[in-house]
Amino acid sequence: MKIVSLISLIVLSVILIPGCSDRKNIIGEDTDIQPLVSTIPGESLIEYSYSYQNKPSRFLRNDKSIVGNFLLNESIILYRFGSLPASGFVITEEPAELVMNIKSQYNSDVLILRLALVKQQWNHIDATWEYAEEDVEWEEDWLDILDISNEISESDSTVVFTFHPYLMQEIAEGWIEEEPESYGLAVFASLVDNNDNRYLECWSRETADAPRLKFEYHPAEDDTTVVEYNRIPVQETFINSHIVEDGTYLGEEIVLGNIAPTRTVMKLNIEEEFFEQLPADGDLKKITVNKAELFLFRQENEENYHFAETLFEIYPYILQEEYLPEDLDETINENMEIVSPSYTSILNSTADSVAVNITSIVQAYISELRDNRGIVLRSSLENKDNSFVSFYSQDYQNEEKRPYLRIIYTLPFLPE
Asked: Which of 1, 7, 84, 200 is deepest in the core (most CB within 10 A)?
């Protein structure tokens, strides 16, 4: 039986091996097909480019909240607390504390933070600088400023607001009466003016270092039992004063940012003349785009970038309608499409350039699967923090810093 199996194996090998060795391998070294590279300079590639802004909104499950000021934008943190003691409780003589853990600081030495009571119902999903809830504007006197402050130094790792027991008793009783609509606390900075660029990032309720409100109390006036209230907020957000309408034209610069969300529109010219070699029949649609990368160079002056995180993520979209600068409006955000497979490109804060992967978009243009109506670049972390970056444009005087597109492509295999 073993002899029969061995003979069968030998016969099968004799049949298969010659067939494989005689066959033309369309992806191996036997072919003359090798990837080609085309580099298109920005002045030839980019027909036009401009940036625009949308109104700030909430970044879901943000690991930080921001308080302070940056580039004319003021940020205020809102907290709401729940699971409060039952009516009739009495706070002990120990001071109450609101403890916030600092994630990072920006020019925050001698930054003074203040506390206020929020006097109006708000929703952490819908709250903005203008609105407390969906379609409900903030009232003129929605904040009741408390005589509680904290001066921050660059060496601090926490912010601790201390409440007199009687004040905490009064505040908590007010919240209990309104529960579950207890309005909570607001944390804001005392600023000299709108150009006072100083802010703190504090770890949010989504993290292990979440803010906490702490106090001790007796369940009732005649009860000597001491219970600790130590809770993170049930709701938290931060609101931003930079108010713009969606689709607000910013300028011809190539800028991406998180607050307010700043995006860049580009119209790319991808013509046959940019390719050194074409298929034998001259049909550009037949080439395969292995990789297409749009190289952007970061402007060097510190006023033209700010990194709140080490990495800045960039994501490309294709436009379903063309938007010239004079045609820009809020509908541009409804006409952005992802072309799969799509990729997030990363700009490291120490790097001077980024290669934005737009392979699928370029392939779709060349194959005529999509009309070339422009692309949009945006940050993947819009509304998360104050990060932004400006890039040199196609008109910049130093040609080495201008954007360019590098396409690695393959011609179709034509069997003999």
From this structure: 200
Question: Average pLDDT in the 297-310 region?
Answer: 95
Domain total in the chain: 2
Q: Which residue has the tokens 């008109």?
A: 395
Asked if residue 192 and residue 148 are part of one domain, the reply reads yes
Determine what percent of the chain is predicted with pLDDT higher than 70.
Answer: 91
The residue segments making up the domain with residue 121 are 64-240
pLDDT of residue 207: 98
CATH number at residue 332: 2.60.120
Tell me if 14 is assigned to some domain: no
Whether 172 and 221 map to the same domain: the answer is: yes
Tell which residue, 170, 168, 207, 202, has the closest CA to residue 188: 202
Segment 84-113 shows an average pLDDT of 94
**Residue range 221-276, pLDDT digits in tens:** 999 999 999 999 999 999 999 989 999 999 999 999 999 999 999 999 999 999 98
Q: Which of 407, 362, 390, 402 is closest to 42 using CA atoms? A: 402
Q: Are strands 353-357 and 288-297 parallel, antiparallel or unpaired?
A: antiparallel
Question: What band does 415 get if pLDDT is binned at 50, 70 and 90?
Answer: low
What CA–CA distance (Å, rounded) separates 100 from 400?
Answer: 46
Which of 207, 240, 273 finishes a domain? 240
Q: What HEC string does 354-374 produce?
A: EEEECHHHHHHHHCCCCCCCC
Last residue of a domain, one of 217, 240, 263: 240
The residues near 111 (Cβ < 8 Å, ≥ 6 apart) are 68, 105, 151, 152, 189, 198, 199, 200
The answer to whether residues 218 and 185 belong to one domain is yes
C-beta separation of 339 from 364 below 8 A: yes
